[in-house]
Specification:
Elements lengths: L1 H11 L4 H34 L4 H17 L1 H10 L2 H19 L5 H15 L2 H12 L2 H33 L1 H13 L2 H7 L16 H6 L1 H30 L5 H31 L4 H19 L8 H30 L4 H30 L13
């Protein structure tokens, strides 16, 4: 009887074949998501020179994605809790992949700006859908690693975009990079259409979870909203401006930038996977999910706060070391932040809560690239921009 009980508990910890398949499709989608959104950062120096853009215009282009991404999160989060999240996500994926491919054909600032807005609209379906599908389809003690793998993909995606994108831009131009990235993303869709999870509830079915007004009246959601805003302000400077910083401020070549701009994101992906696994293991050994998730996330933010501000004044070697350590902290934080939200919200409100959190948190993503563009245009340096990225 005891052996049977142990076997049952061991089996409960394993994911089914269907869960594994869905998880790895979600991981791959997050990887493609962040490759597509990070493509402009890798191509920014070439786009700026080709279209004769100012630093201010480049700042607006880097920020434009987040305008629709943040603005649509509330709607997509609400829809994810009420419609079939798998289908909603598939539609969003098609929109953003098409926008990426079409960017390779754009020839004006206005055209690029419009396609960045469309990219943000499509990608706004991602995290509310992830939250809904994970909270309904995966047990609590496995969500840390599941979220961490998705987060690791989201961190290595910009690394791939920076490394591969910079090499493609150097060899064939920035338009070729966009066409390759967009076409590659579209290859994912047939697999999702075949294997996507099906939500049993019908369109427009009522949800038993708390509504948007109820969530907004609570104090706890606002703490998660504020935390993500502060983090995003710092992190998306690195996502959007790091390649340009290395080229313009550190005078790296495109090939050298490809390595040192991409490597921190790979380190971050490894740290994210470790952070999610560690919090799951802590829970398995008796810790509460609240304690385990929040402790790992808080330690990650503290590491970022200590290592990011000195980066601007450090010589190249020390700066790259500080950058790597900063990205370790980023991985520890982001591997657990969405799991915390799913735990607090529950499966019936995870999409709505995640959408609200991402909408407010993404305001930091909107502001950061624009402020950086103005600082660089005014001073010609990044020195004043980097210390402002101190996480809260």
């Amino acid at each position: 009887m005891g052996a049977a009980s142990l076997t049952m508990k061991a089996d409960e910890r394993r994911l089914t074949i269907s869960q594994h398949r869905i998880l790895w499709l979600l991981v791959l989608s997050a990887w493609l998501n962040f490759i597509d959104r990070g493509a402009l950062s890798a191509a920014a120096p070439a786009v700026k020179a080709d279209l004769r853009l100012t630093s201010v215009q480049l700042g607006y282009l880097l920020s434009a994605f987040f305008w629709t991404y943040a603005g649509c999160q509330v709607v997509t989060g609400w829809l994810a809790d009420r419609l079939d999240a798998g289908r909603l996500f598939g539609i969003g994926f098609l929109v953003w992949s098409s926008a990426t491919l079409l960017t390779g054909l754009a020839g004006t600032f206005a055209g690029l700006f419009a396609l960045r807005l469309l990219l943000g609209l499509g990608e706004s379906t991602a995290y509310p859908s992830y939250a809904r599908m994970l909270s309904r389809g995966f047990p609590e003690h496995r969500r840390g690693l599941a979220n961490a793998l998705i987060d690791a993909a989201s961190k290595t995606g910009p690394g791939v975009a920076t490394f591969v994108g910079a090499l493609v831009v150097a060899a064939f131009g920035w338009r070729a990079m966009y066409i390759v990235f967009g076409a590659a993303s579209l290859l994912w869709l047939p697999f999702w259409i075949h294997w996507a999870p099906r939500d049993p509830r019908r369109p427009n079915a009522a949800t038993s979870g708390p509504g948007m007004r109820t969530i907004l009246r609570r104090g706890t959601p606002w703490a998660t909203f504020a935390g993500l805003f502060c983090f995003n302000y710092a992190y998306f400077f690195l996502v959007t401006w790091l390649p340009s910083y290395l080229v313009m401020e550190r005078h790296f070549s495109m090939h050298r930038m490809a390595v040192f701009g991409g490597l921190p994101f790979i380190v971050c992906g490894a740290a994210s996977t470790t952070g999610g696994w560690a919090s799951d293991a802590w829970i398995a050994n008796g810790a509460t999910p609240n304690l385990a998730r929040k402790t790992v996330a808080a330690l990650g933010l503290l590491l970022c706060a200590v290592t990011l501000p000195p980066l601007a004044q450090a010589p190249d070697t020390a700066a790259m070391i500080l950058l790597m350590v900063t990205f370790v902290g980023i991985g520890a934080f982001t591997s657990n932040v969405w799991t915390i939200t799913q735990c607090l919200a529950g499966p019936e409100a995870s999409g709505t809560w995640t959408g609200l959190q991402n909408a407010i948190g993404s305001v930091g993503s909107v502001v950061s690239p624009i402020v950086t563009g103005w600082i660089v245009a005014t001073t010609g340096r990044f020195s004043l921009a980097l210390p402002l990225r101190l996480p809260c």
